[in-house]
Amino acid sequence: MNKVIKIVVTGPRGKMGREAIRMITNTKQFQLVGVIDRNNNGKGLSEIVSMEDQGQDCSVFTDVNQCLRETKPDCLLELSVADAAYEHALAAIQFGVRPVIGTTGLSQEQLADIEREANENKIGCIVAPNFAIGAVLMMKFAEMAAKHFPDVEIIEMHHDEKVDAPSGTALKTAEMIQRQRQEKQQGHPKEIEKLSGVRGGDFDGMKIHSIRLPGLVAHQQVLFGSVGETLTIRHDSYNRTSFMTGVKKAVETVMHVDSYIYGLENILE
Ligand SMILES: NC(=O)C1=CN([C@@H]2O[C@H](COP(=O)(O)OP(=O)(O)OC[C@H]3O[C@@H](n4cnc5c(N)ncnc54)[C@H](O)[C@@H]3O)[C@@H](O)[C@H]2O)C=CC1
Ligand SMILES: O=C(O)C1=N[C@H](C(=O)O)C[C@H](O)C1
Fold this sequence. Notes:
Homotetramer. By secondary structure, this protein is of the alpha/beta class. Helices cover 33% and strands 25% of the residues. The protein has helices spanning 15-25, 45-48, 64-71, 82-94, 108-121, 133-146, 168-180, 244-254, and strands spanning 5-10, 30-36, 59-61, 75-78, 98-101, 125-127, 151-158, 201-203, 206-212, 218-226, 229-237, 260-262. The strands form two sheets. A seven-stranded parallel beta sheet has the order 3-2-1-4-5-6-12, with helices on both faces. 39% of the residues are buried. Residues 10-11, 13-17, 36-38, 79-81, 84, 102-105, 128-131, 161, 164, 243 line the site of 1,4-dihydronicotinamide adenine dinucleotide.
């Protein structure tokens, strides 16, 4: 029989945190042993979130070190904000706890530190800018298309509570396209922005456009253009349950690896 995986969730009052707690509670081989919240140290989880459809209560911590010392988890599921995620991930690795990081907005330097610490300490760590299987396929398809279509623009659309722009998914998509695409500065060489920022952010000559509106969840279009044709690859997450298959897969997988992995595509068969 498989061993039960003991999990600490960060950001338990957040949109992803609440969904993840529901998934963990409904998964036999997972056990929620603690949560890390910005406030509410010493309270019970049931005092800070509605536990209607959830069976497992646990303690709330604000200090990551105290939480890891007292709860002794196998995995830290990070779903809060970038700077806290960095601190939580490094602390987890020091305690021998495997981080699964869904939080986006971490800098390249922060990710490089986490990668180095995980690899030096031989602790499995998975960073997944998007846990939705369809989003991972969208990125892979975009990477394939980029070999044939060097002209590309990325439009990502999210709810207006999102703090980081561009999204982690858009950045990861651009990185994957960059691996295949011939170097190219797109658009007219003498292009003039008459309104600042109107052509979007520049990633190695590719443009990324970020849209924020109430009503949206998480959506992205990758548009390729060539002579007389365009190709559009689009993914939509309509709710946060869409991310849970990937979260589950990442938590199960991180228990069997001893190094840093960036991107869910690297663990899907
Ligand atoms: N990888 C993926 O598939 C997905 C990633 N995300 C990312 O996950 C993160 C969370 O997203 P949401 O749940 O939508 O945001 P949210 O704003 O609803 O929740 C974030 C929570 O983190 C908490 N928090 C802030 N500082 C903290 C700290 N120091 N310690 C513990 N908790 C702290 C906040 O109080 C809040 O409850 C974001 O970075 C988002 O981009 C979101 C959806 C999918
Ligand atoms: O904040 C969100 O909502 C999401 N964040 C991730 C990102 O930045 O790519 C994943 C998904 O797009 C939802």
